[in-house]
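ARCHIVE CARD
CATEGORY: sequence design from structure
SOURCE FIELD: tokenized fold
FIELD CONTENT:
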């Protein structure tokens, strides 16, 4: 049985972007389609929604449900959109190519805060250019906290380009079993490719991005600072317990 998808989009003056996404991802009547628009809905947007409803009925796509959002300050508007996101079912397919850019940004932020699985689409206006698909798993991997040891491992792989398991273990001064366990976790996060026990380990583009985001020197410095703070805390507590 195919899992239900929720399509989430704002709306401009034409429904073509939404229909194109529904077609490309094989939408069915069992899926959900939620159109998030500012209140009040202006004439051109209302006409596009009516046209979308007619097309969805004719093409056996899900019936659009319109959610009108009262625009206010950032926290209140984000909160209202987050309510819509949290009520969605299955994997979210977000169209970020239409309507007010502010709504597109807030929809993406709400999805990220929800931690729900998603795909977000940045589609070319003509339909002939290059479309970008943002995968939720990849974004969440970028936002994940990695240990100093993980970053050292990634740094060694990046420096060598491709490295065998035995070389990695030797470089890091760890057992092969320990290195394999960490590599498997990093592989799940999409940061490394493991070709075999001694056939080489290499970074993915996502792994390269993680290294760019997190300077190893900064992480080691923060780790040393935290250790120092914890040591001082222990000494302070011991004064009152001895």
């Amino acid at each position: 049985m195919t899992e239900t998808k929720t399509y989430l989009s704002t709306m401009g003056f034409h429904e073509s972007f939404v229909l194109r996404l529904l077609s490309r991802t094989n939408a069915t009547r069992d899926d959900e389609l939620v159109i998030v628009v500012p209140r009040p809905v202006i004439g051109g947007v209302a006409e596009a929604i009516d046209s979308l409803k007619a097309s969805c009925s004719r093409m056996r796509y899900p019936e659009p449900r319109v959610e009108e959002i009262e625009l206010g300050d950032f926290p209140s508007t984000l909160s209202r959109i987050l309510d819509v996101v949290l009520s969605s079912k299955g994997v979210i397919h977000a169209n970020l190519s239409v309507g007010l850019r502010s709504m597109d940004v807030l929809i993406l932020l709400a999805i990220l805060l929800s931690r729900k699985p998603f795909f977000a689409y940045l589609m070319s206006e003509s339909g002939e250019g290059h479309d970008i698909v943002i995968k939720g798993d990849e974004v969440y991997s970028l936002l994940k906290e990695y240990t100093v040891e993980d970053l050292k491992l990634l740094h060694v792989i990046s420096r060598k380009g491709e490295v065998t398991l035995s070389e990695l273990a030797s470089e890091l001064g760890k057992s092969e079993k320990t290195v394999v366990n960490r590599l498997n976790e990093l592989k799940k996060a999409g940061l490394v490719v493991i070709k075999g026990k001694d056939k080489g380990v290499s970074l993915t583009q996502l792994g390269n991005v993680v290294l760019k985001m997190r300077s190893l020197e900064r992480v080691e410095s923060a780790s040393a600072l935290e250790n120092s703070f914890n040591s001082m805390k222990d000494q302070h507590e011991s004064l009152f317990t001895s």
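CARD ANNOTATION: Residues 216-241 form the longest helix (26 residues). The chain has a mean pLDDT of 87.
SHELF: design records, drawer C
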